[in-house]
Amino acid sequence: MTGRKLRLGVNIDHVATVRNARGSAWPDPLRAALLAEAAGADGITAHLREDRRHIRDTDMEALRAGLGIPLNFECAATDEMQAIALRLKPHAVCLVPEKREERTTEGGLDVASDQNRLTSYIAPLRAAGCRVSMFIGHDSRQIEASARIGAAVVELHTGHYSDLHAEGRLDEAEAELAALRNGAALADSLGLEVHAGHGLTYDNVAPIAAIPQVIELNIGHFLIGEAIYLGLGPAIEEMRRRMDEARR
Ligand code: PXP
């Protein structure tokens, strides 16, 4: 499973954040997603949160209908989200923990403590043809539990690594990186497809992109921010260039 091309999934949630700040129809997440597609994104990720703070149900429907590249539907493991996913049948469903008070997804999903429920939760999604992904930390317990419940993919949470890197705590960032590398190798050995994401930027992406078992990165906030300066297409192309360079 190693040595494959590294895919870039672009998360367009924060296009909706800007739109919602004015309560208008602009900017349109689908238009941004189509620009991302034209710039070389391999997939689009959108997180339909319980409180609909950015992406809305109508955005998910428009993305599902309008995209030529795979849609990764990120959501909490609730009955409401399962029903929406079963109706839309996106390429992938990424399950994340969700707390109302958080600004972004803070930690990984606790798959190990919720194995029985998650096994039956993902069964109809798998039967509908969705690739089910667990957004987890690099802890071996969570990786092994993800394999046991029948998930196809794990997305390793790179938020802690990104924070340490941004704070200049480079020894700790290196230790976190080593743990992510071990986690990726374990997941791959268990037959899981390995993705990674959260907090990735031009400055910190290379060591994550270089992990051979990782075959997809999902990146949102930084790219949407960078698009203010460069435009979305060039911002994505530069990320793609850095990922490919790190992979060589
Ligand atoms: N992957 C998952 C599962 C996420 O929850 C997020 C944030 O929505 C991302 C990737 C992208 O993180 P960021 O916006 O920090 O690039």
Question: Which SSEs are present, and which pair or pack?
Answer:
Layout lengths: L6 E5 L1 H10 L6 H10 L4 E5 L9 H10 L4 E5 L3 H10 L3 E4 L19 H13 L3 E6 L3 H10 L3 E5 L1 H8 L3 H20 L3 E5 L7 H5 L4 E6 L1 H10 L1 H16 L1
Helix pairs in contact: 2-3, 4-5, 5-6, 7-8, 10-11
The structure holds pyridoxine-5'-phosphate.
InterPro entries: Aldolase_TIM (IPR013785), PyrdxlP_synth_PdxJ (IPR004569), Pyridoxine-5'_phos_synth (IPR036130)
Organism: Fuscibacter oryzae
GO biological process, one term: pyridoxine biosynthetic process
Helix share, percent: 40-55%
Average pLDDT across residues? 96
Q: Compute the number of structural domains.
A: 1
Structural class given helices, strands, pairing?
A: alpha/beta
CATH topology type: TIM Barrel
Uncertain spans, ≥5 residues at pLDDT below 50?
none
Return the CATH class. Alpha Beta
What percentage of amino acids are in beta strands? Answer: 15-25%
Mind describing the biggest β-sheet? 8 strands, parallel, barrel
Question: Can you describe this structure?
Answer:
- The protein is of the alpha/beta class and 248 residues long.
- The protein has one domain: TIM Barrel (Alpha-Beta Barrel), CATH 3.20.20.70.
- Helices cover 49% and strands 17% of the residues.
- Helix 6 (140-149) links the parallel strand 5 and strand 6 (153-157).
- Helix 4 (79-88) packs parallel to helix 5.
- The protein is globular and about 45 Å long.
- The model has no long low-confidence stretch (mean pLDDT 96).
- Residues 11, 13, 47, 74, 94, 96, 104-105, 135, 155, 197-200, 218-222 line the site of pyridoxine-5'-phosphate (PXP).
- InterPro entries: Aldolase_TIM, PyrdxlP_synth_PdxJ, Pyridoxine-5'_phos_synth.
